[in-house]
Design goal:
By secondary structure, the protein is of the alpha+beta class. 39% of the residues lie in helices and 11% in strands. The chain binds iron/sulfur cluster (SF4) (2 copies).
């Protein structure tokens, strides 16, 4: 699989400022993105008073969560103890998973990292823009924090961004606790947290056995569907890796298409998967999705809210039913509730 470049992601692009090296470099090689990105940068920000969903209490709560995340970003790496503790791969995996759960993770798995899990180059922050990602640690503990239904059900209003910012904070703290602990045991470890990632989390989480990637581009988990936020710690500490989940989600997404139907901007494609690069997949139009967020002033989340998984059906049901039978089961559940 081809590596992704963080410089192309919407969140990195929105940090590029005219007159700075990131702006000049990116738009000289990607002139087709300049008009839409300039327009988006001029539009009101998420949680800003000019947007229709604004509420001064809720908006400032989400803003405070993002400020906290920004403050702790430099702590993702740190000093490694000189006294290395010896531990078997199996025992280390077991203990780290238990600790992740004790720290608040709702899902946890371990992957042996592959080059495609890492971005090719960094897009943010400015001081790291354009750097080749070279810190390729060979193992990852990957975890998920569930998003609460009471907030997701209010998508696309401010409770959605409250929920996403809160779960980003929880995932970042779990990652800090794990990475500080692993370094204390004498092994390199880096927290992969919001705004400071070297890895592509959904792909890494899929390979750690946490779920499968759906039409909406999100990791779909067994118990919570797409209503999770992910975090990871990459490390040199040898760990016993988990197996991928062996389910055919793509055939179900072919039949379902709910996220695509409900998406207000047609950012999620309809129809079958296409070959993109070397992969057969659906590709979200990130500009269409993010434009809507800026317009309404919050994360949208309708593709999370409307996915059947986490709403009465489970990924493991894919082993028992055909996609058509499972869709009928989901619709039937809806009628009864
Ligand atoms: S978050 Fe909203 S706009 Fe974006 S892809 Fe999902 S449904 Fe579409
Ligand atoms: S809403 Fe349906 S098509 Fe979209 S990711 Fe979920 S299962 Fe797949």
């Amino acid at each position: 699989m081809k590596k992704h470049d963080e410089r192309d992601t919407m969140f990195a692009r929105m940090t590029y400022e005219e007159g700075k090296k990131n702006y000049e470099d990116y738009y000289s090689t990607n002139p087709d993105k300049k008009v839409i990105d300039d327009e988006l940068r001029k539009s009101p920000g998420i949680c800003s008073p000019e947007t229709p969903t604004y509420d001064p209490i809720d908006a400032n709560f989400a803003i405070s969560n993002f400020k906290f995340l920004s403050d702790i970003r430099p702590l993702v790496k740190g000093e490694i103890s000189e006294k290395r503790v010896s531990i078997s791969q199996k025992e280390a995996a077991k203990r780290l998973k238990e600790i992740a759960v004790d720290c608040g993770a709702d899902l946890v798995g371990i992957a042996r990292t592959k080059p495609y899990h890492y971005y090719s180059h960094r897009g943010r922050p400015l001081e790291h823009y354009g750097e080749e990602v070279s810190d390729l640690l060979p193992y990852a503990i990957v975890f998920g924090v569930k998003m609460r239904k009471k907030n997701i059900e209010q998508a696309p209003l401010l409770p959605e961004v409250i929920e996403s910012s809160m779960t980003y904070v929880k995932a970042a703290i779990i990652g800090m606790q794990l990475s500080y602990f692993i370094r204390e045991l004498g092994y390199a470890a880096r927290n992969q947290m919001d705004g400071n990632y070297l890895v592509v989390l959904p792909t890494l989480a899929k390979d750690a056995g946490l779920g499968e990637i759906g039409r909406n581009g999100l990791l779909i988990t067994s118990k919570y569907g797409p209503a999770v936020r992910l975090g990871a710690v990459t490390t040199e500490m040898p760990l016993k890796a988990d197996e991928r989940m062996d389910v055919d989600l793509a055939s179900f997404c072919d039949v379902c298409g709910m996220c695509s139907t409900k998406c207000p901007t047609q950012a999620i494609p309809r129809g079958k998967r296409k070959v993109i690069g070397e992969e057969l997949r659906w590709q979200i139009t990130q500009e269409k999705c993010y434009s809507f967020w800026r317009k309404i002033g919050t994360d949208c989340g309708l593709c999370i809210k409307n996915c059947p998984f986490g709403n009465g059906i489970d990924l493991m049901d894919l082993k028992k039913y055909t996609p058509e039978e499972l869709m009928a089961k989901f619709k039937d559940n809806g009628k009864r509730h």
